[in-house]
Amino acid sequence: MSILFAAPDMDAGAWRARLADQAPDHAVALLGEPFDPSVVRYVLSWRHPDGALKELPNLRVVFSLGAGVDHLIADPGLPDVPVVRVVGPELRDRMSEWVVMHALIHLRQLRRYERQQRERQWSDDETQPKASDVQVGVLGLGVLGADAAKKLRAVGFSVSGWSTTPKLLDGVRSFHGEEGLRTMLSEADILVALLPLTATTRGMLNAALIRRLKQGGPLGGPVLINAGRGGLQVEADIVAALDRGVLRGASLDVFEREPLPALSPLWSHPCVYVSPHNAAISEPGAIVAGVVRQIEAFERGDGLQNVVDRVREY
Hints:
Layout: E1 2-6, H1 12-22, E2 27-30, E3 40-45, E4 61-64, H2 70-73, E5 83-85, H3 89-107, H4 110-118, E6 135-139, H5 143-154, E7 158-163, E8 173-176, H6 177-187, E9 190-193, H7 207-211, E10 223-226, H8 235-244, E11 249-252, E12 272-274, H9 284-299
Parallel strand pairs: 1-2, 1-3, 3-4, 4-5, 6-7, 6-9, 7-8, 9-10, 10-11, 11-12
């Protein structure tokens, strides 16, 4: 049996070495090199070319090397085998770190103080709201969203969350459905997007949704934080909302096109923080260890974890 590494944008040699070390009983093949398709049982994928997995007659599981699986679902040649999201403790914790960091950045007006430092200006003539004065709404209460909500609560924010189906989280007001979404948006000072990208959520962070966010409030206006998927957002609408003051600020880790084009106004917008899709970057060794544990359990006859529902697309 062998494992096929199908992630053209990653350092295949380094991943092969980790796989060889942690799964010595499995030969490792790389997409683009000659290999026998009939011996491939498992695939580790990130943005493989459409159709690249079509001719693997004995394939049993496809693992996505990240929480997102839209790159897999979009492949019309994807074999009818279980697709598993790689959502381990390290990826989860790093995502929550990034979300909490940016919520605090906007709470404590870091951009203002960075500007004052550059200008050698000593001024503190604005009030500083407390975390408990600020309502954070989390879109998506899966593994990542639920953990981020919990950790936002731990630093003092008031937190609510929205999901497509009802969820119960200690200390978090939970909403679902269209009416629940309307209510949560109307109360949110900071909106955190950690939804999967599906046909339903694509373009969800648009002008219509932004207009439903609470205006004014302790931060002077609503803030958008998106570390989910770039396809969730309509960047022209976000820029327009920032320019009109409908949005007070934004922290974006994901984009409609990646890398973010050099001419995008997001790069230089004074109210925007940009990071290069690395909010939840994980050490490859930790990801490989999690995948190998799943493979070993599967071969013992145990069930797989974090299996994607292809109808829901997550």
